[in-house]
Design goal:
The chain folds into 4 domains: about 5-40 and about 60-115 and about 250-315, 3-Layer(bba) Sandwich (FAD/NAD(P)-binding domain), CATH 3.50.50; about 130-245, FAD/NAD(P)-binding domain, CATH 3.50.50; about 335-450, 3-Layer(bba) Sandwich (FAD/NAD(P)-binding domain); about 455-540 and about 550-565, Rhodanese-like domain (Oxidized Rhodanese, domain 1, 3-Layer(aba) Sandwich), CATH 3.40.250.10. The protein is built from 15 helices and 30 strands. The chain has a 5-stranded parallel β-sheet with strand order 3-2-1-7-18. Strands 9-16-10-11-12 form a 5-stranded parallel β-sheet, covered by helices on one side. Helix 6 (about 195-205) crosses helix 15 (about 540-555). The termini are far apart.
Length: about 575
């Protein structure tokens, strides 16, 4: 006897599950109810339709109801909202949003893939006409129509997450004056602050205004403009506003049905994607997952995990025994010509989880330095101090960023230690990499820490270095580099002159050494250590420090990071 399977939500996890169920069970009756007018659409592509990069709206949808019916014999009903679940009767209440008709549908198995909804703050003026959110294709079409019809010259984005930055880029490419307002002092929360400063610099370079550390208090219409009221600043006058301050699990149905909820009202599931109610499964942005690094419960709203969960739920609905191993939050985003990627924990999250962590910064080229066209990337790799377990990585650059983050994500998933990165046998040819790949280089640096060959100090410790002569502060860049900018108190002895001038360095004192990226200062530390000095290498180099300093100045904020020390 064939099973009847109802799926609530036809995007990402829901659509994946539906197709997988059909591949496993040709006889099953499959019905998908989707509240919006579209299924299987690419959420991540929506901002690029607004900006005109994707010109045909049909390209946003991977499948249509007609395609599902013809190829998979799946009954997909768009603009149908499931309004209630009745586990005792194994039925759902459904409303046809086009006709107003209400009916009940029975099920043998039920899969919930409701996704997440944009956070709508309870602020004055939220209902004004030129204020938008972006989550569905319909949202995208409304914004695109407004842009084409009204030809706005300015926009304010409330929120600096992935969607906010992608929309900001696309509106800026249309020639609009764009401002991002963000309560934290940085964009992209998966990044640590110092890494986010590279993103801030790129966005300012492209003409986007950043109002970081500011809170939106409400909105007003005045003289045909929208006034964005700030808690701690002058109002911003703009032609349109897009709220991108985050999403929350859409779990009202689950709650009303008595399904157990977890953190932030997300749906609790086991590794088989089963909820607390028999024969009801859940996947996607609405579910609580196991974080593979911390072992704690987490919410990770990404398309990759949602699709994997949909496949696993489908397997188990069809009698299989698949399990979801958890998420580690690997992501990548394009910001103009820059690529930003993360995996695992950032430093702040590691500390919040009670993990004692260490880190390395490096600034390698995307490929062999002698091959034309190489670009620099900035990498931060985190590991647990005692065990050298890989915890996370962040990479910002241009070419080759996605490749390296995927290697690191794979190493983490495989349970490799940070020390084993040096042993990875990675592909090499001058147009693509160096013989010592950046991932290998991170492993070499971590190995040097483990053996005691490398001791480090960091950007947020510079302000704590004594200026009473009890330590030596040494800058080993060229005199030209030093002349263009340096940190107060650091004396200049270029690396290539160090051996001849080593007598200028006072013995018996700790020596704190910096260069542009951290390589020359490391070589200097090796020379000094073998001549009896106690040396500490500045991880990330002056390039990192200067980027942070310029960000502090641009934001007109003061952070306790020694930013007053630069010349």
């Amino acid at each position: 006897m064939s099973k009847k399977i109802i799926i609530v939500g036809g995007v990402a996890g829901g659509a994946t599950a539906a197709a997988r169920i059909r591949r496993l069970d040709e006889q099953a009756e499959i019905i998908v109810f989707e509240r919006s007018g579209f299924v299987s659409y690419a959420n991540c592509g929506l901002p690029y339709y607004i900006g005109g990069v994707i010109q045909d709206k049909e390209e946003l949808t991977l499948q249509t109801p007609e395609n599902f019916r013809e190829r998979f014999r799946i009954d997909v009903r768009v603009r149908h909202e499931v309004t209630a679940i009745h586990p005792d009767k194994k039925t759902v209440s459904v409303k046809n949003l086009k006709t107003g008709e209400e009916f009940e549908e029975n099920y043998d198995k039920l899969l919930l893939s409701p996704g997440a909804r944009p956070v709508q703050p309870n602020l004055p003026g939220v209902g004004i006409d030129n204020l938008f959110t972006l989550r569905t294709v319909e949202d995208t079409l409304r914004i695109r129509e407004f842009v084409l019809k009204e030809k706005p010259k300015s926009a304010v984005l409330a929120g600096g997450g992935y969607i906010g930055l992608e929309v900001a880029e696309n509106l800026r490419e249309l020639g609009m004056d764009v401002t991002i307002v963000q309560r934290p002092n940085q964009v992209l929360n998966p990044l640590d602050y110092e890494m986010a400063t590279f993103v801030h610099a790129k966005m300012r370079e492209k003409g986007i205004h950043l109002m970081l550390g500011h809170s939106v208090e409400g909105f007003e219409q005045k003289d045909g403009k929208t006034m964005v009221i700030l808690k701690d600043g002058e109002p911003l006058k703009t032609d349109m506003v897009i709220l991108a301050i985050g999403v929350a699990p859409d779990t009202r149905l689950a709650k009303d049905a008595g399904i157990s909820l977890g953190i932030k009202n997300s749906i609790v599931v086991n590794e088989r994607m089963e909820t607390s109610v028999p024969d009801i499964y859940a996947v996607g942005d609405a579910v609580e997952v196991h974080h593979r690094i911390t072992g704690q419960k987490a919410l990770i709203s990404l398309a990759g995990p949602a699709n994997k969960q949909g496949r696993i739920a489908a397997d188990n609905i069809c009698g299989g025994n698949s399990s979801y191993k958890g998420s580690q939050g690997s992501s990548v985003i394009k910001i103009f010509d820059m690529t930003v990627a993360t995996t695992g924990l950032n430093e702040q999250a590691a500390k919040q989880a009670g993990i004692d962590c260490d880190k390395v910064y490096l600034s390698p080229s995307s490929h062999a330095s002698y091959y034309p066209g190489g670009t620099m990337m900035t990498m931060k790799v985190l590991f647990e101090k005692e065990t050298y377990r890989l915890l996370g990585a962040q990479i910002i650059g241009y070419d080759g960023v996605d490749k390296r983050i995927d290697v690191l994500a794979t190493a983490m998933a495989a349970g490799m230690s940070a020390l084993e990165l040096q042993d990875l046998d990675l592909a090499y040819a001058p147009p693509y990499s160096s013989a010592k790949d950046p991932v290998n280089m991170a492993g070499f640096m971590i190995d040097n820490i483990e053996t005691g060959t490398l001791k480090q100090f960091f950007w947020d410790e510079v302000g704590e270095l004594p200026d009473d002569g009890s330590v030596v502060l040494l800058d080993t860049r060229t005199t030209e580099e030093y002349g263009r900018g340096h940190i107060n108190g650091f004396v200049n002895i270029p690396l290539d002159e160090l051996r001849e001038r080593i007598g200028e360095i006072r013995r018996g004192l700790p020596v704190y050494v910096m260069c542009q990226s951290g390589l020359r200062s490391y070589l200097s530390c090796r020379i000094l250590a073998q001549n009896g000095f106690d040396c500490y290498n500045f991880s990330g180099g002056y390039r990192l420090y200067e980027t942070i300093y310029r960000d502090c100045v641009a934001a007109k904020q003061s952070y306790p990071c020694g930013m007053d020390k630069i010349n």
